[in-house]
Design a protein that fits this description.
The complex is a heterodimer of chains A (161) and B (114). Chain A is an alpha+beta fold and 161 residues long. Chain A has three helices and five strands, in the order βααββαββ. With 114 residues, chain B is an alpha/beta fold. Chain B has one domain: Transcription Regulator spoIIAA (2-Layer Sandwich). Helices cover 40% and strands 32% of the residues of chain B. Chain B has a five-stranded mixed β-sheet with strand order 1-2-3-4-5. The termini of chain B are far apart. Chains A and B meet through α1, α2 and α3 of A and α2 and α3 of B.
Chain lengths: 161, 114
């Protein structure tokens, strides 16, 4: 990691409280990094959804498993990793929540929101054998024109990075 | 901010005033409990006033859909009132505007039940 980059790692318990904790932690970093209010909202929501995914789907709410959250702040972007200790999953098998037949589904919108709110998003096999979500947002100072977000909310989800 | 929900009668419709965040955990659970109580009391015309709800995550969205379906399955109708910008944008993004009936003022919403 370069000297002008910052790295933060935290291991979270598989419990509901970890979702709020992760969101609050990432929001503080995002605010300190200079992201505007709308981008902070999108980053916070994406972290929530990543940790909910790890809590519920990855670790299946089993308290003996952990959620590994990593933040990297480079001069260009904020990169977030959420790693669970589950069995991993195939992103291609996740149903599209905005397809007509899925609109009344009571779950399955988390990945859609992360894709919509972040600049880059992908899921890779993690070192634990679980799924690792990797997502990033360009820093306002790195030439991102949508720091306070007139785009994004209505934007189509991004393709995999 | 923890979720709070109170309800009142207005022209035969039960208006549920909600404030706080509808998110995984207590927020979603309280909404579920409130809707269940209303249905148990045979209140099936429900208007959720979300004027003071500034944050909903995917669990909260799921709970809104679940509430909508629960009311519909009991022969009732659930509509939404006064969305904040973030909630409005979120429902637009997830295409749930095509599912929920949404009103910006209470009188219009109440008239729509007649």
């Amino acid at each position: 990691m370069a000297e002008d980059s910052k790295h933060l790692e935290v291991t979270l318990e598989t419990q509901v409280e970890s979702v709020n904790l992760a969101e609050e932690m990432c929001l503080r970093v995002a605010e300190a990094a200079g992201f505007g209010e709308d981008d902070c909202y999108r980053i916070g929501m994406s972290v929530r959804e990543g940790v909910i995914n790890a809590f519920h789907y990855g670790n299946e709410e089993r308290p003996e498993k952990k959620i590994h959250l990593t933040l990297d702040l480079t001069p260009e972007k904020m990169i977030i990793h959420v790693l669970d200790e589950g069995k991993g999953f195939d992103l291609g098998s996740v149903p599209d929540p905005v397809a007509e037949e899925n609109l009344l589904s009571t779950s399955g919108r988390g990945i859609f929101l992360m894709r919509a709110f972040m600049d880059e998003f992908k899921v890779v096999p993690g070192r634990t054998g679980g799924a690792e979500i990797i997502m990033s947002k360009k820093l306002p100072s790195a030439g991102n024109p949508a720091t306070n977000g007139e785009s994004g909310h209505g934007a189509a989800p991004k393709q995999e990075a | 901010m923890a979720l709070r929900a109170t309800y009142r009668d207005a022209s035969g419709v039960t208006v549920v005033d909600i404030s706080g965040r509808i998110t995984l955990g207590e927020g979603s659970a309280l909404l579920r409990k409130t809707i269940r109580e209303l249905l148990d009391e045979q209140r099936t015309l429900i208007l959720l006033n979300l004027a003071d709800v500034d944050y909903i995550d995917s669990s909260g969205i799921g709970e809104l859909v679940s509430a909508y379906m629960g009311v519909k399955n009991r022969g009732g109708t659930m509509k939404l009132l006064q969305l904040t910008k973030k909630v409005h944008d979120l429902l637009q993004l997830t295409k749930l505007f095509t599912v929920f009936e949404v009103y910006s003022d209470e009188n219009s919403a109440l008239r729509s039940y007649r």
